[in-house]
Amino acid sequence: MNKNETLQQLRQARTGHLRWQAHAQSILSAPNHLDNISEKAPMNHTDCQFGQWYFGQMEALKHIPGYQQIDPLHERLHQLYREIFDIMLEKKSGTFNWLFGSDARHRQRCIDKARPVMDQLSATSKELLAAIDELQKTIEQMPEPA
Question: InterPro entries in the record, alphabetically (predicted)?
C-alpha cells in the first residue's frame, strides 16, 4: 500500500469511527430502538470494522510513532460502549417495581445512569480522533519511497 492509499484508509477509518459514535449515542437519544438489539450489540475491539482495519492492513504502520496510541483508546471505547449497552438493558428489579413501575421512568433512570459513561466515551472518542489525526500528519510528512 502506498502513501496515498494509506492516507485514504486513515480518512475512511476516521469517517467510520464518527459513524459508529453516532450509532453509540443513539442508544441514549433513541432508547426505544433497542428492539433491534443485534444491530447495536457490542463486540470485541478487534472484531469491528475499525479493529479489523487496524490489526489487518494498517498493522504495517506499527513502526510509525503514534500508531500504538490508537489501540488502547479504541479498546477503551468498546469497554465504555459495553457498559452503556448493559446499563440500557438492565431489567427492572423488585416485585413492586415489576408490578407498578413505569417503563418510561425505568428507561429514564437507565439513561441518567448511562449519560456519564457516554460522556467518557465522547472524551475518549476525541482522543482517538486526535491520535488518528497525528498519525495522518506523521505519514503525510514522510517522504515517498523511491
Answer: Chemoreceptor_zinc-bind_dom
In angstroms, the Cα distances linking 135 to 41, 48, 58, 125, 130 are 29, 20, 11, 15, 9
Q: Cell match 426505544: residue?
A: 32
Residue whose C-alpha is closest to residue 20's, from 56, 53, 52, 50: 50
Distance in angstroms (rounded) separating the CA atoms of residues 4 and 17: 20
The pLDDT score that the predictor gives to residue 93 is 56
Domain ranges of the chain: 3-141
What are the b/e assignments for 51-79, b being 16+ CB within 10 Å? bebbeeebeebeeeebbebbbebbebbbe
Do residues 7 and 15 lie in contact, with contact meaning Cβ atoms separated by under 8 Å? no
What value does the mean pLDDT take over residues 65-84? 92
pTM of the model: 0.82
CATH match of 3-141 with 1.20.120: yes
The cell for 81 is 460502549
Q: Amino acid letter at 24? A: A
